[in-house]
Amino acid sequence: MKKLLAVFIIGLAALSSCQKLDILPPNILSDDQIFSSQAGIETYLAQVYRKLPIEDFTYRPAGRNAGEGGFNLHHEWEHFYHAGGACGEMVGPYGGMDIGNGFGYWPYDDIRAVNYLLETLPKYAKNYPAATVANLIGEAHFLRAYYYFALAKRYGGIPIIKNVQNYPQQSIKDLQVPRDKEEDVWNFIGDDLDSAWNTMPATNETGRADKYGAAALKSRAMLYAGSIAKYGSQNFVGGAARDQGFVGISADKAAGFYQKAIDAAKLLEGHYSLYRKVADKLTNYTDLFLDVQSPENILTRDYFSGESERMHSWDATMSPNSGMNYMTGDGLSRAYPTLELVERFGILDVTNADGTPKRYNQLADLWQGQNLEPRLLATVYFPGETLRGKLFDQRRGIYPTFNYKSADEVAKPGGDRKFASSGDHNTLYAGSNMTVIGNAGMFPSSGADNNTRTGFYVRKYINYKQTDLTKITLFSSTTHWIEFRYAEVLLNRAEADIETGQTDDALICLNDIRDRAGASPLTLANMVVDTVRNERCKELAFENHYWWDIKRWRIADVVLNNARFHGLMPYYVYDEGKYIFLKEPETFQRNYNFDKRFYYEPLPGGQLNSNPNLYPQNPNY
Amino acid sequence: MKLRISTIMLGVSMLMAGTSCIKKDNFPGPNASLTGSLFLDGSSSKTTVQTSTGNFNIRLEELSYSATPAPQDIPIKNDGTYENDKLFAGHYRVSIKGGAFWPVAPVETDIRQGSKLDFQMTPYLLLNNFKATLTDTVLALTADLSAPIDGGIPQIIEIDPYVNTTKFVGPGAAIYQFSESQKLPVPSASSPWDWSTLTPAQKSIGVTVTGLIRGRTFFVRLGVKFNNDDKSSNLSEVIQVDVPKQ
User: Fold this and answer.
1) Among the three residues B121, B144, B171, which one is the final residue of a domain in this structure?
2) Complex prediction ipTM
3) What is the average per-residue pLDDT within A359-388?
4) CA of B230 to nearest chain A CA: how many angstroms apart?
């Protein structure tokens, strides 16, 4: 009996041993599952778009904790860690020039995902109409160009990987690809975008790029390349990487890149227009950032109500909560527009001819009496404005009396200035029922920064239409981010125009923008580089352009040469019952200094260790 | 309780299993060191260069570890010396990183315990005859510039006063109100000075610092900042200034 059992067991084992373990792993999706259906491909693309390095509300330019990069893949809420707050558009929680080294962005896994799509989709082409395949291939070229754009503007030349790399099929030596020259990378981006333009659809679903998105990116990327060629040849840091062309482009290439920017921008003409739905220019400019139906929007990143991961916190982190749910239901603000940004729109006239400060009956008289540009008022909240029925009543303090000249008073050591201040919103001025600093108002220099340090608050992208404070909390904002809008394309074109002497065309572009903004028209005599740069800084404020612009213009080391920024501080003069405004350093008096080496970020150390062929490192690191 | 042989065996085998993975780290610790001074080239009295802490660095690259090593920088101290006593012994390339000095060729050397390496440095400009004259709370700082090597000096962008309450004074270690905010762009930020075109009068520089606080002691020096790769400065010596109470 025992023998029989043993034979039976051996026989069973022998039979089952021939079974092949060819069951597909249940936790890995196969190519068939992904590429056989439109839904599968869209799911695949959704991940690529999610990781697309769009510098939106959630972008944090120096990253967060170790291993958490600057793009929103870790549920970022502190949107006041904004690039503009490290370079003078705003002042914010960055302690100074904290973003020069970046965060080691290195998205070759995402680029591989795009290359994989480019290689695999044609194998499944028979499942789809030819136009669908062509559209998707074009879209993949756009996505790849976008990733390379994000790399090139940080590092200059990096390895161009056009095909899927495989290990262990390829040796480590083959996978250690050396850097390409910076000029070649920008040309590769341009070529990819040409491929995208040729085969992408003219329209696409919201949140996905169409061919005009490709043209918009090309106008931006070629403008960057043109200015790096022109200005990077004048102001640069020497080193092996520059000698070998990994950073820097020869100056004689500038004109060609600028012309490509103009040509790409012109492709959008007649298809997009500036937002002009509302007659009142201030309301119009405010709403252009809130209206999903704007004819100006070329590519947006959408946010949705529901799960908190699909929402952002711009509203709850740019307006004063003041610890009392003042204008928001949660969160706090920490980044504030500078006087330097505000005065790009014109110098604020707050001082009499004799040097004494002008007197105002109420805060709002400041901006109501100045004939300020509607675009400025739609970009920045001034003292005396209202949001959700609450007054921006910020005061730096209260003077019992004031009989000085503005400049003399500001120059005094802090201890010699005789105004009352407070670190508490509830503190009443002695003998009165007036609070010292106001509900939106300003803490002493040694105090907190969750109220304005400059007298101003951000207005752009603030959803003023939402008045229910319980819906102005962390992860409750659903305003879409406009990655490409037509105004930027016009500015790209105008700048490249002026750099190549095509001033007639530049004038048309800039006056279109200024008319919509409520500004007076310019003339041909104004068509110089400084004009278009200033217009760009105004129009695109807080949209994460300024940092890259002052870098590619190679002026960051001059603009941020141990720079300190200023505010417009409101004070109440008690014995007169009037307000005055003093232009003085922002309350934290932080110092911002840009090392010339920051024109390029350092290649990440971990990548250099993995791939010694990436050497030489960028200059001066 | 009687110990069974099987229990003892189990205990012994667990002990062996636990200890079998322990490898002894017999690599040497970071017990090597490198010190040195940066002397003014040609100075017979072995004068160290005028600098301030962190103004420029010694760069070490451990070639015996890797052909492309991650660099380590040692800040040069305010007295013109440097020291790192927690280095791994090995073969290194030692170079000067930054600073307003004429380039010095990197040195390849073996670093062991007690290694010493000095450098002879030539600044772009020397700030001679540095004087600090106090009138009430106004401080006039003057110096005469001279160039050990005349041609090819980077453009000069600023004449900077540096005022601090300690002798550690210089770029990055100065009181903003008395230093950065009272600096002298030459003649403006957009048109820097070219040494070769300066007149003898322009080579005698002067900056006035106003509003010093009465009753305080300050340490002051002058700097000339260049538009070179790291925008570094040549510095004067440091002078102590006592501002009277009245």
Assistant:
1) B121
2) 0.88
3) 96
4) 6
